[in-house]
Sequence to fold (105 residues):
Amino acid sequence: MAESNGKMYKLEEIIGKPLITSSDKKTRIYGLNVKGREIEISAYLESESRKGYFHKVEVEYLSASMYIINGICTCESFQYYGMPCKHMLTARNVYLKNQNKINKD
Ligand SMILES: [Zn+2]
Fold:
């Protein structure tokens, strides 16, 4: 898991092509690792307060229960509470909704 340091990223700083981009373009999934019953997702999610800037999110959940077992995010909520934040939930939900459309180019 990457360090969560509060940094925000501009789109041009993000390297690579997303596997999944949400229809509102705010969630971009770049990495996916399926380890048996555990799904690990790396994503960038656009900040709601600072348009054009993205939080870096990593989330790991159990495929059967969808329960989040690990994660890290550069947002203030995660820095402060250390609990799964809305970005982790959104990254997981966007993956669940779009997993059949993974871009394999
Ligand atoms: Zn967050």
User: Anything to note?
Assistant: The CA atoms of residues 22 and 94 lie 6 Å apart. The chain is about 20% helix and 35% strand. Residues 55, 57, 73, 75, 77-78, 85, 87 surround zinc ion (CB under 6 Å). The domain at 9-101 is CATH 3.10.450 (Nuclear Transport Factor 2; Chain: A,).
